[in-house]
Amino acid sequence: MDSSPSGQRVVATIVALPDSHDVVRDALTELVAATRGEEGCVSYELFESAAVAGTFITVETWRSAEDLATHMTTPHIAAALATTEGHLALPPGIHPLLPVA
Questions:
Q1: 86 vs 34: CA distance, rounded Å
Q2: Looking at CB atoms within 10 Å, which of 4, 11, 27, 54 has the fewest?
Q3: Mean pLDDT, the chain, as a whole number?
Q4: 65 or 24: which leads in pLDDT
């Protein structure tokens, strides 16, 4: 993973079931607030697709791959996963990014 000064960039895709958009949106909003306070979090943004309702995207920058790994073990990640259990169409897609050009 990239641990350069620009940090580790990540995109995550979370797809809610049709009747669960509000539950997932609320859980992710709480997750954002807690995550932004983590050491090593450079930026953490949450978006909802304008093309596909209920598809949520996080765009993240972490100081290092190690900080990202620590984030994945936090209580607020566990809480978000517990809250959204049974409300997701697919498992969350977590995509650490590698620069190409």
A1: 22
A2: 4
A3: 93
A4: 24
CB–CB of 54/87 below 8 Å? no
Phi, psi of 23 (to 5 degrees): -60, -45
- Strand bridging mode 8-15 / 55-62: antiparallel
DSSP string, the chain: ---STT-EEEEEEEEB-GGGHHHHHHHHHHHHHHHTTSTTEEEEEEEE-SSSTTEEEEEEEES-HHHHHHHTTSHHHHHHHHHHTTSBSS--EEEE-----
Alpha-carbon Rg of the chain, whole angstroms? 13
Dist CA 28 CA 92 (whole Å)? 12
Cα 60 to Cα 10: distance, rounded to the nearest angstrom: 5
Q: How far apart are CA 89 and CA 86, in angstroms?
A: 8
In single-letter form, the type of residue at position 69 comes to: A
